[in-house]
Amino acid sequence: MSYACPLSFENIDSNISRMNSLMVSSLVVTYLITFNAVIVYFLLFDFSMRLFCQKRLSLINNLSILIKKSFKLKDKFADSGAKRLAAYFALFFLLMLVAGNNLNLYIFSIVIGSIFLICSLMDAFLNFCVGCQVYFVIKKVYPSFMS
């Protein structure tokens, strides 16, 4: 998602973001198999820490940084505004999963979880961030969005 003209003028490491997506995907798959609500609550807490507090409080982000350092991967930067909007979308999906779980709507949870999983896996393996694409479209229409 690294474009020549960054839209928020802040960058994040795309490798860490993709590792985050892979870990989130594995946890969502585990949730869809077990319907253990603790997994969704953990993800909700982790995303909240990343979005509203400090990234260093996120266990998933810290694990991604550790993996990146251990494999000695080089930095690959992407626009942070786009990734931030994608994280808000993920938070929305997680809230929907919590609602579906609390209301015992398992088919609803499977559908929402599958959509979330597809988006997350596309980011992890194909470096195609659906939330980022939405961000770039919105940013063209409303240049001051998330500034």
Describe, in short, the structure shown.
This protein is mainly alpha-helical. The protein has helices spanning 14-34, 37-52, 59-71, 80-102, 106-126, 130-141; strands at residues 11-13, 77-79. Strands 1-2 form a two-stranded antiparallel ribbon.
Question: Which descriptor suits the 3D outline?
Answer: globular
Give the number of domains: 1
Distance from first to last alpha carbon: 19 Å
CA radius of gyration is: 15 Å
As a percent range, the share of helical residues equals over 70%
- Give the structural class: mainly alpha
List keywords for this structure.
2 strands, 4% strand, 147 residues, mainly alpha
Describe the structure in your own words.
- The structure is a single chain.
- The protein has 147 residues and is mainly alpha-helical.
- The protein has a two-stranded antiparallel ribbon with strand order 1-2.
- The chain is globular.
- The longest helix is centred in the middle third of the chain and has 23 residues, at 80-102.
- Helix 1 (14-34) runs antiparallel to helix 2.
- Mean pLDDT is 87; it is low at 1-7.
- It has helices at 14-34, 37-52, 59-71, 80-102, 106-126, 130-141; strands at residues 11-13, 77-79.
- The protein has one domain (11-141).
- The chain contains 6 helices and 2 strands.
List the helices and strands and how they pair.
Elements: E1 11-13, H1 14-34, H2 37-52, H3 59-71, E2 77-79, H4 80-102, H5 106-126, H6 130-141
Antiparallel strand pairs: 1-2
Helix pairs in contact: 1-2, 1-3, 1-5, 2-4, 4-5, 4-6
